[in-house]
């Protein structure tokens, strides 16, 4: 190769070969990761990207650790489905976000079919959380201990756990998870808590509930299932994250995807790129935002088209494995915001001068 073309290639290399986990770690984050699911692992091209630790340093099983798989009958535990992704992560030394211990959805039918009282539901819940979390002891970087326990107005969601135990069920779940796996970071995880508002306030109330009970909560997971053109602004996302970190917990973007109204065109893909850059950029600006997880990275494996008619193309890779423009939006966020902007000092807000 001629020297000048070698040089040109070398100059072009950083962006062309930029890979997300590598860039995230270089910028001081713990990981850039993705959700994945067992049925997807027969696609060789998909798996080669999934297991490339320069691209993804963290995996979340999208389904395999949910109650319906783990305890399909009362007292009968089966970890096989969850182990497929946890073993894959271990093989390639990827961090594992474990998802989830308590959720109103994807429960085993017997849980909702049983009539519970406080005593027997407490015992059953303790057993479920302890057995599941201790099974993966030492393997989970983080556990989503309770998932989606809030209504949109910030009040607690009515479900089998809340209706019988009230907010006590959060404490039970966090207490057992901490006992079962002292090394795992324990998270509350939800959607629509990515900008300030009543639901985000509800999530803060949960953090304080656990802390005031003398129990451990380490983080809040911001799912971040967004719509192109409707993503909260970077300032909203940053101030929201700081609302949580001010309580002494970490935050993470745990399920990022940004769906567009099909068909994709130059305009909505360009906006999607801006929107991905905004969310990842917010995490970059907040020191205790530990990392970003996308809710799968390949359009055919996204949950979006099955749930939102007319919407899709929410991830970073198209059907043919070419990258969305949004991939570069993420790269820009990971490379341009490597330093955390200093926060305005609390001292400046003092009304009276400090007497020394
Ligand atoms: O990606 C998951 C999909 O395969 C399941 O069908 C769906 C069932 O509710 O759950 C999806 O994952 C959800 C996650 O567990 C919690 N937050 C919302 C996610 C998307 O629905």
UniProtKB/TrEMBL annotation:
Its EC number is 3.2.1.8. Keywords: Carbohydrate metabolism, Glycosidase, Hydrolase, Polysaccharide degradation, Secreted, Signal, Xylan degradation. One of its GO terms (biological process) is xylan catabolic process. This is Beta-xylanase. One of its GO terms (molecular function) is endo-1,4-beta-xylanase activity. Pfam families: Glyco_hydro_10 (PF00331). The lineage of its organism: Eukaryota, Fungi, Dikarya, Ascomycota, Pezizomycotina. Residues 17-333 form the GH10 domain. Belongs to the glycosyl hydrolase 10 (cellulase F) family. It is found in: Secreted. Pathway: Glycan degradation; xylan degradation. SUPFAM superfamilies: (Trans)glycosidases. The keyword Secreted applies. It catalyses: Endohydrolysis of (1->4)-beta-D-xylosidic linkages in xylans. It comes from the Eukaryota. The active site is at 255 (nucleophile). One of its GO terms (cellular component) is extracellular region. Residues 1-18 form the signal peptide. InterPro entries: GH, GH10, GH10_AS, GH10_dom. It comes from Coniochaeta ligniaria NRRL 30616. Its main location: secreted.
């Amino acid at each position: 190769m001629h020297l000048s073309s070698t040089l040109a290639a070398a100059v072009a290399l950083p962006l062309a070969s930029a890979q997300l986990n590598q860039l995230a770690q270089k910028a001081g984050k713990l990981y850039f990761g993705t959700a994945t699911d067992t049925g997807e692992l027969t696609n060789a091209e998909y798996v080669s990207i999934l297991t490339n630790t320069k691209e993804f340093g963290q995996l979340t099983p999208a389904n395999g650790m949910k109650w319906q798989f783990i305890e399909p009958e009362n007292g009968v535990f089966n970890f096989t489905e969850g182990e497929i992704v946890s073993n894959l992560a271990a093989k390639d030394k990827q961090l594992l976000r474990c998802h989830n211990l308590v959720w109103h959805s994807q429960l085993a039918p017997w849980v909702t079919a049983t009539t519970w009282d406080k005593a027997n539901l407490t015992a059953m819940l303790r057993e479920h959380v302890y057995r599941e979390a201790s099974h993966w002891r030492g393997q989970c970087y983080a556990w989503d201990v309770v998932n989606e326990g809030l209504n949109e107005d910030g009040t607690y969601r009515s479900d089998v756990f809340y209706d019988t135990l009230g907010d006590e069920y959060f404490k039970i779940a966090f207490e057992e998870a901490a006992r079962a796996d002292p090394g795992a970071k324990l998270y509350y995880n939800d959607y629509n808590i990515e900008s300030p508002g009543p639901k985000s306030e509800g999530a803060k109330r949960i953090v304080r509930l656990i802390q005031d009970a003398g129990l451990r909560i380490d983080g809040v997971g911001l799912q971040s299932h967004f719509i192109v053109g409707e993503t909260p602004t970077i300032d909203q996302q940053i101030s929201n994250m700081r609302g949580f970190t001010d309580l002494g917990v970490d935050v993470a973007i745990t399920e990022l995807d940004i769906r567009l109204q099909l068909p994709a065109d130059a305009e909505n893909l360009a906006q999607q790129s801006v929107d991905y850059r905004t969310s990842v950029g917010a995490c970059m600006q907040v020191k205790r935002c530990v990392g970003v997880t996308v809710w799968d990275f390949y359009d055919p494996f996204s949950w979006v088209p099955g749930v939102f008619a007319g919407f899709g193309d929410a991830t970073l890779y198209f059907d043919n494995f070419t990258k969305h423009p949004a991939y570069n939006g993420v790269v820009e966020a990971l490379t341009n915001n490597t330093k955390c902007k200093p926060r305005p000092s609390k001292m400046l807000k003092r009304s009276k001068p400090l007497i020394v």
